[in-house]
Specification:
The chain has one domain (2-61, 70-111): Alpha-Beta Plaits, CATH 3.30.70.20. Strands 1-4 form a two-stranded antiparallel sheet. Helices cover 26% and strands 11% of the residues. By secondary structure, it is of the alpha+beta class. The relative contact order is 0.17.
């Protein structure tokens, strides 16, 4: 789930706002993205992939928000890690893109039996 926007690194290009399939962001008065509808995030990482400034961090937990310390995330080099590890943009030569493997995950999800709803 989208967790952090590092305003000091953001270039206000708007790419993350444009590519988000669930309209999670709103543009702030300064043009920088604001997380407006975090619960709508599908954890697809598209915003992080398109952020060449590495100004975003998407946590891999798609079930809910993850409490994070922004400075620890930054110190660990996590902003943009998915983009680097995916061989996106300038990382294409050093990191092979493995997105084609997601088809296996989607196929398993498609073929999995639907879980029966549980009573409250």
């Amino acid at each position: 789930m989208i967790e952090l926007v590092f305003a000091d690194a953001c270039t206000a290009c708007g790419d993350c706002i444009t590519v988000c399939p669930t309209n999670v962001f709103d543009a702030g008065a300064d043009g920088r993205p604001q997380i407006a509808r975090q619960a709508d995030c599908q954890t697809c990482f598209m915003c992080e992939l398109y952020c060449s400034a590495d100004a975003l961090f998407v946590a891999p937990d798609c079930t809910g928000p993850t409490p994070l310390d922004a400075e620890q995330v930054r110190a660990a080099g996590l902003p943009g890690q998915f983009r680097r590890d995916s061989g996106w943009g300038e990382f294409a030569a050093s990191h092979p893109n493995q997105h084609w493997r997601m088809d296996q995950v989607f196929r398993m999800a498609r073929n999995a039996p639907a879980a029966a709803p549980t009573a409250p």
